Amino acid sequence: MSEKIGTREYLKSIVKDPLVASVTPTSKFGVNCLLKNLDFSKDMLVVEYGPGGGVITKSLLSRLTPNSKLIAIENNEIFYKALKHNLKDSRLILFLDSAENIQSILSNLYKEGQIASEYADVIISGIPFSMFPNEMKDKILEDTRNSLIPEGRFLVYQFLVSLTVGKTDIKLKLRQYFDMKRSHIVLRNVPPLRVFETVKMKSIDLKRKQIDISSFIDTQNNVKIVANDS
Ligand SMILES: C[S@@+](CC[C@H](N)C(=O)[O-])C[C@H]1O[C@@H](n2cnc3c(N)ncnc32)[C@H](O)[C@@H]1O
Q1: Is residue 2 classed exposed, middle or buried when 0-12, 13-18 and 19+ CB atoms within 10 A define those classes?
Q2: How many domains does the chain have?
Q3: Which residues of 157-195 are buried (b: 16+ CB within 10 A; e: fewer)?
Q4: Is residue 230 part of a domain?
Q5: How far, in Å, from the CA of 50 to the mean position of ligand 1?
Q6: What's the DSSP call for residue 113?
Q7: Which end of the chain is less enclosed by CB atoms within 10 A, N or C?
């Protein structure tokens, strides 16, 4: 197994697994933009979706306190094995799994006493949302929200030119579940990136979530509430 996971390894992997979704690791400009507003002075439970070759994982480990934990969930076996081989750090817990299973992963680790809380302070995601069906995007976003502490952060990086537009675009989707704090464009990355910094909302605004609540019944008054989606 190669020590370094660079462009050559990404190219080999993407041929076999399109969900790798990148031909080269995120640049140092992308990594710095993603992590620059986090407070690394306190102990944190951080989750990373799609660590790939580990460029963000390594940067996180170099910044996190000794008592912090990092859970990295990667569903490509080649990357997972390389990370297992290359990154020996007692704070890192690696999973060969999909981000869809975040809630059971956290709950099992908590029951086993491997983490002190089943809610993460920060979740970072580079998985290719634009390639997922809409239901999968919603499941991951909803479960991510449920896996964060109140005011927890969800940081997302995606390619600037994505495959989806309109209502399924990740920026709009993120707004249904999180408060958008900042977004950035990183041109010094191949290809250029969008970085979104979001925070868990206290309560989900039903209107923004575009839920069809026409079937909600006010049982006390036996009134059917009908709302128009906008
Ligand atoms: C764009 S690459 C990012 C890799 C790396 N973090 C970086 O910044 O260079 C996306 C990564 O997400 C992984 N991935 C795709 N779908 C996933 C899923 N459902 N759960 C976990 N990882 C996934 C891919 O295998 C790939 O490693």
Answers
A1: exposed
A2: 1
A3: bbbeebebeeebbbeebbbbbbeeeeeeebeebeeebbb
A4: no
A5: 3
A6: T
A7: C
Q: Among all chains, which residue has been given the structure tokens 């750090």?
A: 89
- Dist. CA 107–CA 153, nearest whole Å: 19
Q: Is residue 229 part of a domain?
A: no
| Short-list 186, 185, 178, 169, CA closest to 209 | 178
Distance of CA 74 to the CA centre of its chain: 11
Domain that holds residue 115: 7-224
Q: In the structure encoding, which two tokens stand for residue 215, read together?
A: 């079937």
CATH number at residue 157: 3.40.50.150
The CA 194 to ligand 1 mean position distance, Å, reads 15
- What would the pLDDT profile of 168-209 be if each residue is shown by its tens digit? 688 999 999 999 999 999 999 999 999 999 999 776 554 455
What is the per-residue pLDDT across 70-115, written as a single tens digit (0 to 9) for each?
A: 999 999 999 999 999 999 999 999 999 999 999 999 999 999 999 9
Residue nearest to atom 25 of ligand 1 (CA): 20
- Residue 153 token pair: 């952060």
Alpha carbon nearest to ligand 1 atom 13, residue? 50
